[in-house]
Amino acid sequence: MSRLPEKYRYIVVEGPIGAGKTSLARKLAAVAEAATLLEDPGANPFLQKFYQDNARYALPTQLFFLFQRVNQVCDLGQADMFRQATVADFILDKDPLFARLTLNDDELNLYQQIYNSIKPQSATPDLVIYLQAPTEVLVERVKRRGFAYEQTISEDYLLRLAENYARFFYQYDDAPVLIVNSEHLNFVDTPADFELLIERIIAMRGTREFFSMGE
Predict the structure, then answer these.
(1) Which of 8, 30, 87, 188 has its CA 20 to 30 A from that of 59?
(2) pLDDT, tens digit, for every residue of 160-170?
(3) Burial 153-174 (b: 16+ CB within 10 A, else e)
(4) Dihedral (Cα; 16, 18, 19, 20), 10-degree rounding
């Protein structure tokens, strides 16, 4: 198994629901002997209600996630990364992406004020791995993993979410980005796929590169 370069002290794996970011983050952390910084959607008491009634529960769901992510990022100090590398399955800068997707204008204004007032100065990732997949693949993966709070997610919501992620990362230039089409890749169950990804990371020379596999 190839090792990740030492220069990658802080790696973020991102992507829409069902892209496989948390599973990949855990595997990368194991290879790099790194700490993990992972979202905890199951801790959000509003999430299942949000998927059943978007309009009513969008704001409390979003604010809970905002506070959760801010607290996690604040716990990640620069000194910690000098002691041990870190792999995360979220980047705080993407939080407004969900807000713009789900909140009405008044709620969005309130959210933005709160976001601007509490967003901490945070470390910039050494590498962001952005996972993409077609909407039908995301839907199938969400259903297969069987989390109860996700079973009412609509295909339309996942489509709009994937489109918002694509727009976000089209403009994102704070860190090098490896864009991965994960449709035909299984990093958890297929060691060869994971090894190919590691080799692709090692070979990166530019600030924005793309990795994909055909059927």
Answers:
(1) 87
(2) 999 999 999 99
(3) beeebbbebbebbeebbeebee
(4) 130
Q: Which residues contact 40 (CB under 8 A, 6 or more apart)?
A: 68
User: What residues contact 113, with CB distance under 8 A and at least 6 apart?
Assistant: none
Answer whether 83's CB lies under 8 Å from 11's CB: no
Q: Which residues contact 51 (CB under 8 A, 6 or more apart)?
A: 149, 150, 151, 152, 153
> Strand pairing of 86-88 and 10-14?
parallel
Give the pLDDT band (50/70/90) at residue 77: low
**What is the tens place of the pLDDT at every residue in 180-203?**
999 999 998 899 999 999 999 999
Residues 6+ apart with CB under 8 A from 143: 151
Return the number of other C-beta atoms located less than 10 Å from residue 12's C-beta.
25
Q: Residue 129: beta bridge partners?
A: 13, 178
- Which residue shows structure tokens 């910039």? 124
| 169 touches 131 (CB < 8 A) | no
The CATH class of the 10-212 domain is alpha beta
Selection from 11, 15, 42 nearest residue 27 by Cα: 11
| Cα dist from 194 to 99, 180, 213, whole Å | 32, 12, 12
CA angle 215, 150, 89 (to 5 degrees): 65
The residue to which tokens 């090098």 are assigned: 176
